[in-house]
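does this look right to u?? calcium ion version
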Amino acid sequence: MPTINAIILAAGEGSRMKSNTPKILQQLSDKTLLQHVIDAALPLDANLNIVIGHGAELVKNAIDNKNVNWVVQKEQLGTGHAVQQVMPDIDDDSVCLVLYGDVPFIQSTTLSALLSKAIETGFALLSVVLENPFGYGRIKRDAEGQIIAIVEQKDASKNELEINEINTGIMAVKASLLRNYINNLTPHNTQGEFYLTDIVKMANANNVNISSFICDSVVEVMGVNDKNQLAELERLVQQKQVNEFMTNGLGVKDPARFDCRGTLSFGKDCVIDINVVFEGNNELGDNVTIAPNCIIKNAKIGDNAEIKANSMIEDSTVGNHTTIGPFARLRPQSRIGNNAKIGNFVEVKKTTIGNTSKVSHLSYVGDSTIGDGVNVGAGVITCNYDGANKYQTVIKDGAFIGSNAQLIAPVTIGKNATIGAGSTITKDVPDESLALSRNKQTTLSTWKRPSKK
Ligand code: UD1
Ligand code: CA
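got this back:
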């Protein structure tokens, strides 16, 4: 096997995006466009050469792969000029795989097939047939079907514009062959750029046999130049993914209103209602139901759990048979036990809640450890912050916290202790006791409301 040099072109501004962010740092699903391309190249064991220019520092900082040969293209004079910048770093006996930073959904398997072809023949192009080829370079073939040139949209004649087979931009070429042509490009075209695609014409003039590999998946080779194409590709990627999930048994009420930006594993009989967004890595047990409008990020949700509408769960775990929401928010590091309940308008942060415990209405529970069988009444607040530092609240098994109590941390509520409604608790409460802190009620039967003068 020869050495493979992936050359990823990522220096362009992407002016059609009309954004302050370089185009290749726009997000598709869970990653930037460029990260998708890098991740497709990684399984090929290739050297990574990435050509950057616009927003070079931003791009470098956004990518955390080590062992990247970053090559700066100071002026963006075209895709051919971009490849020229890398050639001094490339060995003649390697094979170059040119990838475009804005063609993000290319798959490793397609790339290895293309590489095999190039190793055999020296020069292989990845093309695709599109119903609407607008914007892409067209593949020109002679009467025998031999590839003779690529013509860019802006340079194409009326007849050439009718061609439906287009250049994906992705090609694999033996380095020695690429070097022969890359330095002889001229910018004689409508855009005044050095087109990488012109090497096809030059190789053909030298009788180099250019083989093509026609990709059967349009999604894989879609280029992203503007926000319309970005959204179109996002939908296609999501659609492909949700179809795989449903094939593997996930129940989805409406696949058009389902987004997973990351990974999702699930057991049997889970049902996801509309407008649920999964982010990061999520794991669902068996028979989990998620109602509309939930955002679930890096969560592990147990068997038979029910997530009701409009809830958010982030970096947290939910036990078996537990219900969350509607309108609940689990912030990072929350661990909710089995058969528990977190009800509406409850915010939980960095808190462990035991089995069968309930926080049913309008509460804030943060930096707390709550045991099993605890009932936290409506409107209870753990006051964990003094303006400078955060403190812990501990509520032991079987405790009952009356409605609208404030627990001023650090504080511990003992086993089976009871807190009277409306109390402000500043000192630890021993096991099995009742703590109250409120004025006795005064009732005046002779009192009259003031009336208007
Ligand atoms: C290019 C191809 C076209 C193909 C299409 C596929 C050329 C001349 N045209 O057109 O045949 O159908 O991609 O999506 O190659 N870049 C640099 N430096 C530069 C210019 C561009 O690094 O000086 C990078 C861009 O960041 C981008 C990629 O190269 O990632 C492609 O550039 P772009 O301007 O989008 O080319 P297209 O017009 O789409
Ligand atoms: Ca493009």
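The chain has eight helices and 39 strands. idk if thats expected tbh
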